[in-house]
Amino acid sequence: MYNILVVDDDKEIVNAIEIYLSQEGYHIIKAYDGEEALEKLKENEIHLIILDIMMPNKDGIETLQEIRKDKTIPVIMLSAKSEDYDKIAGLNTGADDYVTKPFSPLELIARVKSNIRRYVDFSHANDTNGKNKNQKEKVLKTGTLEMNDETKKVMVDGKDIKLTATEYNILKFLLENKGKVYSIEQIYENVWNEESYGAENIIAVHIRHIREKIEINPKDPKYLKVIWGIGYKVEDIQ
Amino acid sequence: MYNILVVDDDKEIVNAIEIYLSQEGYHIIKAYDGEEALEKLKENEIHLIILDIMMPNKDGIETLQEIRKDKTIPVIMLSAKSEDYDKIAGLNTGADDYVTKPFSPLELIARVKSNIRRYVDFSHANDTNGKNKNQKEKVLKTGTLEMNDETKKVMVDGKDIKLTATEYNILKFLLENKGKVYSIEQIYENVWNEESYGAENIIAVHIRHIREKIEINPKDPKYLKVIWGIGYKVEDIQ
DNA sequence: TCCCTTTTTTTAGGAATCCTTAATAAAAAA
DNA sequence: TTTTTTATTAAGGATTCCTAAAAAAAGGGA
Fold this sequence. Notes:
- 2 copies of one chain form a homodimer.
- By secondary structure, chain A is α/β, with parallel strands linked by helices.
- In chain A, 41% of the residues lie in helices and 21% in strands.
- The first copy, chain A, is built from 8 helices and 11 strands.
- In chain A, helix 2 packs parallel to helix 3 (60-68), helix 6 crosses helix 7 and helix 6 packs across helix 8 (200-214).
- The A-B interface holds A 12-13, 16, 19-20, 23-24, 101-107, 109-110, 179-181, 195, 227-230, 233 and B 68-72, 74, 88, 91-97, 114-115, 118-119, 122, 150-152, 164-166, 168.
């Protein structure tokens, strides 16, 4: 079975997580600060890490950066509700997912399962060719539209495009899944990490802004297309 | 259908909740304190729990902690007005959601549905073999008719077909069950997720539209056939 | 901290597209 | 032929999407 490293200075939370996840058949290894986490990571074979952001000694973001120097295992960040700055910082430094406290046990379980599945699926899928798919593709591309997720630069026809954070995230999500059609709800839930609740126009507005920036003729989009009654997609162009 | 355990010492509230939720097709099991709740939980297969925080004998938080020792089903906490301390305490001890009293029936129903959708529908689907059973086959096919449910593309003889959302859903339903014959009522109920109520022509109209798009000769359909007096089917062709 | 700028969300109106209804025609069964 | 069932057609009414602009929130610099 899989070993999960749980890192949080709040012992109650660590214990609670242990209860939830061990019921699902995972084996839990605990750490209470960043330093300890790095030690445990060396000593054990870990398949996934749950990492709190606010911690003494070495906080979650620093710890994550250390981890990422030589590991690509999935990391789920834990952050207190309102510190969404941390969310972004965490995600930009290599987290695979995040969960806000207080969190629902089932949500945590779902995310753990999903991240493990993705990780395991990918690592089995590509023994043959040299490229490691665990390292997510950093440059996303369709037609003449390019997005470099490391530098956060977006280009169309070789020209720089300046997107806002939200616009970037929406485009990134659709570009990572180019060709596939997603409903407004799905887009919202994937980009905001929250349940969508009547947030339909928000997407429409951002879509329009993105189109204004990446499309030659926003009224007849080449990349960001609507599938009437179903959702949106980014066209997959060779 | 789903069984919901409702726990509150106020019988009126329990009865009110029963009325709301049974109208939505849920089966309600009642308990009036924490001890009773734990008993009912042992005796029945419960899919979701609605749990009041303030109760005699054993309060909601204690009860929740007991539950969490060996169950991971979704729990929605009920808390009086503004005691948001309880909310947080409840969530940190493993609640998945909470609703404050007084609550609107619609809000409660929405949260129940959302929690069941997120955590119950999917959880049992992929235990046995590697493949997720909920993940239906992505590409549906019969003869030269192909449907890709990820890209929402439909092709006949290699040519793109543009269907509307409803047409797509009808064809998808019949294609997922190719060869089988469904009555107009069954098609309506499966595609609209509502009781069919004399809405017979609707299907006929859509069927005609689909035929116009996918059939060479709509009057003598090759794929979408009528079984006179019984219903429609999509022919299963190798 | 406050102010200014930028970004995000909300609101509202209009436009495009699709769904449903209803009426009639055609086909199959009785 | 009569009855029942399905097919066809066309027009409102309803959805869904687009657009603009203003309000609200977030970010940045003094």
